[in-house]
């Protein structure tokens, strides 16, 4: 698509021009890693744009602090410019490279896949399985597996996830290479530790200690906290699944587990975090100043939040109603939503997580180089 | 048709740092405060939007500023730029109050960058606010509005009517004249650099070539109104704080990024293709302002920085692309000069360059960083004078009261910021001092205006 290539060139050129103005100004140095990484770059290559756009956490502090932001004729809008470049990096490094890349990265596609997964599971089950299997009441150990056999649940989820992780892995590897060669002599161990801390603490959403401009020119930590709730909630749900796997395979205890068991407690805490986090982030998006936002990317952001919200709520509904006849349909819905989420990992907003982690690792490697070149002043 | 619309204790004219500090200070002193900013909301903050740091006297390092900068050093730096024009009493007041102004600004929501942040240049004299001037302005507006200061944008003060009781102020708002009566008025509206006619009156046609680096709303109307009301002028109406900027900068609000960094590395010629100054004389931070003044006095108030591919590697490029050509003659044609003249200028310069980076046998000499302009392609940046602010103000006393030429206060009118900065700086400039003057005298003016309004 030549038109699309022209669009990509314009997006890159806009970002380059804006960042050159940043490099001449440098007032935002205290906010985040993007401006520090920019300092050592005189001319911005495609590799630099790839790196800087994914290092940007889209916190908008630099937009509200910018004397060159619209309506200024320079029209500097770093969060918006870098969002657009960043979204291109997801598409450009997609694996396998299939036609229709643009469509596959939209929120509509993610939601369509998710709803299809729910339908693909539910419709045949309702049509062909005996009604008492799907709509009957089941209780005691192995109740879930009397609706759908364990091998089907685990097989579907496992294969989808495996394929998606493979695809994400290849994409991230291609993205890593696109950022250019790593500074020679950098120590990977300390860099990994620094990057993990940046990820775990979301230091770059801290605005140099005062928070970011989540909604307008006032500073707040809301976005950072909601994101923490979401990602740590997600991690707890993952831990719940891991513990349940051990219970099932090592200890021979079959789900469903009692309310006060480890998998249910971890999953409930994690699910609550995910609900609060996704709802909070969606609320911030809806009420944010539209100035620094690339409106065309909002759909993909909201679709990921919707998927995660649906996973958490359908999980809770399943927990609450697992003794009733609603358990079967809820299990089908929950499983469908999880499968939809897994299937769209490689082509949705989810890619921001591994891509940003890679950019933070690269930044940690570069930081060592910067420190070597500029020893701290006495 | 004029109608009385409003009364308040303290009326603050202006929308920048000094005005905000005055409004907050007056409000914290218990006054009902209204602020009138001539800019629309999107351009609020005056020239403070483009600022970066405060010059602060301090005897020991703090989380926001390194080393020590004793009051004596501050005083000698001020004397160095202002010479005999400095009002000693006000200068010592500024230096003494500067020590406490950081804490006061922090208390009013302004954030500073940590002094040990390795992204900052070493500075024992100035503290940098996080995110620059617009972040500071945003924080101060949030504080002022939170305290209940009434802020009106698009409102320009046109005339003062000082009186023993309430002072009446004529305001133009949305094309309509209004009168506001206040117990005291603080004027913090900066210079008059955005008034092209006034500049032309002082600079002649050269003014048409000037670029204004800051707000288009610094028209100086309130300054003119104060002078018409009998305020004693200080400073000089024919002088400006200027730096050399890329000639393609927007007419207003180009701020810091339009400065030309590398002028000292190549050669500089006027529009006729001839060198006119020692490019190597100033290589430190003073180079920006020195070249601003030089370019302002060139024919057409324009000059050109010329370099080759080897020289270009030594400096930070302009945000605008260089004009380029394969030969000096071609470059001259691109710049609208006679090729033969620029060719002979460059040839004479190149022949005069000696090892060690200076010239011999040409006038003007280049005393440092001299290297032949010889490796094509050649490049050029057009240079213009970028005006930060004008140097005309009104005389004030230690309470920031505006004084008449007989030394008596102009009833109930106070001033803060660039409109009274020439009392201290004359027509000189010290990095970070304008913001400190704005905050220190804004704070004083607000407090004193509130006290005056209570009388």
Task: Walk me through this protein's architecture.
The complex is a heterodimer of chains A (378) and B (455). With 378 residues, chain A is mainly α. Helix content of chain A is 66%, strand content 0%. Chain A is built from 15 helices and no strands. In chain A, helix 3 crosses helix 5, helix 9 (150-178) runs parallel beside helix 14 (327-344) and helix 10 (188-201) crosses helix 15 (352-373). Chain A is elongated. The N and C termini of chain A lie far apart (56 Å). The mean pLDDT of chain A is 91. With 455 residues, chain B is an alpha/beta fold. In chain B, helix 1 (17-28) runs parallel beside helix 4, helix 2 crosses helix 3 and helix 3 (88-107) packs across helix 12 (433-454). Chain B is elongated and about 75 Å long. The model of chain B has no long low-confidence stretch (mean pLDDT 94). Chain A: InterPro entries: Citrate_utilization_prot_B, NarG-like_sf.
Give the SSE layout.
The complex is a heterodimer of chains A (378) and B (455).
Chain A: H1 2-25, H2 33-39, H3 46-55, H4 61-64, H5 78-92, H6 101-104, H7 107-128, H8 131-135, H9 150-178, H10 188-201, H11 222-249, H12 262-287, H13 298-320, H14 327-344, H15 352-373
Helix pairs in contact in A: 1-5, 3-5, 3-15, 7-13, 7-14, 9-14, 9-15, 10-15, 11-12, 12-13, 13-14
Chain B: E1 4-13, H1 17-28, E2 33-36, E3 53-55, H2 71-82, H3 88-107, E4 126-128, H4 133-147, E5 150-152, E6 155-161, E7 167-173, E8 176-187, H5 196-203, E9 211-212, H6 221-228, E10 233-246, E11 267-270, H7 287-296, E12 302-307, H8 309-312, E13 323-325, H9 328-335, H10 339-352, E14 353-354, E15 358-359, E16 378-394, E17 401-403, E18 409-415, H11 422-425, H12 433-454
Parallel strand pairs in B: 1-2, 1-8, 2-5, 8-18, 9-16
Antiparallel strand pairs in B: 3-4, 6-7, 7-8, 10-16, 11-12, 12-16, 13-16, 14-15, 17-18
Helix pairs in contact in B: 1-4, 1-12, 2-3, 3-12, 9-10
Mean pLDDT of chain A: 91
State the helix count of chain B. Answer: 12
Distance between the termini of chain A: 56 Å
How many β-strand runs of chain A?
A: 0
């Amino acid at each position: 698509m030549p038109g699309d290539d022209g669009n990509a060139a314009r997006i890159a050129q806009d970002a380059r021009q804006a960042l050159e103005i940043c490099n001449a100004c440098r007032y935002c140095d205290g906010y985040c890693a993007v401006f520090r990484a920019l300092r050592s770059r005189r001319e911005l290559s495609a590799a630099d744009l790839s790196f800087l756009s994914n290092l940007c956490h889209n916190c908008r502090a630099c937009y509200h602090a910018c004397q060159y932001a619209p309506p200024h004729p320079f029209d500097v809008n770093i969060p918006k410019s870098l969002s657009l470049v960043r979204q291109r990096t997801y598409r450009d490094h997609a694996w396998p490279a299939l036609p229709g890349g643009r469509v596959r990265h939209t929120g509509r596609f993610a939601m369509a896949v998710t709803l299809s997964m729910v339908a693909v599971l539910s419709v045949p089950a309702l049509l062909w399985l005996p009604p008492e299997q799907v709509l009957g009441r089941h209780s005691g150990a192995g109740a879930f597996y009397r609706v759908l056999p364990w091998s089907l649940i685990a097989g579907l989820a496992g294969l989808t996830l495996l394929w998606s992780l493979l695809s994400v892995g290849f994409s991230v590897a291609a993205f890593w290479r696109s950022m250019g060669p790593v500074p020679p002599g950098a120590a990977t161990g300390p860099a990994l530790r620094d990057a993990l801390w940046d990820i775990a603490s979301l230091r770059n959403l801290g605005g140099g200690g005062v928070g970011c401009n989540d909604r307008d020119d006032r500073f707040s930590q809301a976005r950072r906290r909601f994101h923490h709730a979401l990602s740590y909630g997600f991690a707890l749900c993952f831990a719940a699944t891991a513990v349940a796997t051990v219970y099932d395979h090592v200890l021979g205890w079959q789900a469903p587990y009692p309310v006060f068991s480890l998998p249910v407690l971890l999953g409930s805490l994690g699910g609550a975090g995910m609900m609060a986090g996704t709802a909070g982030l969606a609320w911030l998006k809806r009420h944010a100043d539209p100035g620094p936002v690339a409106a065309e990317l909002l759909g993909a952001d909201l679709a990921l939040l919707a998927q995660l919200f649906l996973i958490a709520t359908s999980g809770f509904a399943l927990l609450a109603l697992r003794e009733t006849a609603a358990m079967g349909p809820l299990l089908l819905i929950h499983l469908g939503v999880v499968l939809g989420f897994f299937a769209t990992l490689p082509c949705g907003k989810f890619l921001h997580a591994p891509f940003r982690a890679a950019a933070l690792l690269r930044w940690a490697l570069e930081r060592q180089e910067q420190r070597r070149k500029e020893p701290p002043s006495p | 048709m004029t109608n009385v619309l409003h009364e308040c204790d303290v009326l603050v004219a202006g929308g920048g740092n000094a005005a905000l500090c005055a409004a907050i200070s007056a409000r914290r002193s218990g006054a009902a405060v209204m602020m009138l900013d001539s800019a629309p909301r999107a351009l609020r903050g005056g020239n403070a939007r483009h600022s970066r740091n405060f010059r602060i006297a301090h005897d020991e390092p703090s989380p926001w500023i390194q080393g020590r900068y004793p009051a004596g050093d501050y005083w000698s730096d001020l004397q160095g730029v202002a010479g005999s024009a400095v009002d000693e009493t006000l200068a010592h007041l500024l230096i003494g109050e500067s020590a406490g102004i950081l804490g006061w600004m922090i208390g009013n929501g302004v954030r500073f960058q940590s002094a040990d942040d390795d992204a900052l240049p070493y500075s024992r004299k100035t503290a940098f606010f996080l995110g620059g001037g617009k972040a500071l302005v945003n924080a101060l507006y949030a504080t002022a509005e939170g305290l209940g200061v009434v802020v009106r944008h698009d409102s320009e003060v046109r005339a003062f009517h000082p009186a023993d009781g309430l002072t009446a102020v004529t305001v133009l708002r949305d094309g309509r004249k209004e009168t506001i009566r206040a117990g005291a008025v603080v004027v913090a509206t900066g210079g008059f650099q955005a008034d092209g006619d006034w500049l032309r009156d002082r600079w002649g046609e050269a003014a048409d070539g000037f670029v204004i680096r800051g707000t288009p709303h610094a028209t100086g109307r309130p300054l003119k109104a104060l002078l018409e009301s009998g305020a004693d002028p200080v400073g000089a109406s024919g002088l400006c704080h200027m730096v050399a900027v890329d000639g393609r900068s927007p007419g207003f609000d180009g701020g810091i990024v339009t400065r030309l960094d590398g002028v000292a590395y190549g050669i500089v010629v006027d529009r006729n293709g001839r060198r006119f100054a020692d490019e190597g004389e100033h290589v430190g931070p003073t180079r920006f302002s020195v070249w601003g003044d030089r370019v302002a006095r060139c024919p057409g108030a324009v000059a050109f920085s010329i370099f080759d591919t080897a020289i270009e590697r030594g400096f930070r490029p302009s945000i605008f692309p260089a004009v380029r050509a394969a030969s000096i003659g071609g470059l001259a044609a691109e710049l609208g000069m006679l090729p033969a003249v620029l060719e002979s200028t460059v040839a004479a310069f190149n022949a005069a360059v000696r090892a060690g980076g200076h010239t011999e046998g040409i006038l003007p000499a280049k005393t440092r960083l001299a290297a032949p302009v010889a490796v094509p392609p050649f490049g050029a940046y057009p240079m213009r004078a970028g005006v930060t602010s004008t140097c005309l103000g009104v005389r004030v006393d230690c309470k920031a009261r505006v004084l008449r030429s007989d030394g008596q206060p102009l009833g109930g009118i106070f001033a803060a910021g660039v409109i009274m900065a020439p009392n201290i700086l004359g027509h000189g400039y010290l990095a970070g001092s304008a913001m400190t003057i704005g905050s220190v005298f804004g704070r004083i003016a607000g407090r004193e205006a509130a006290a005056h309004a209570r009388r």
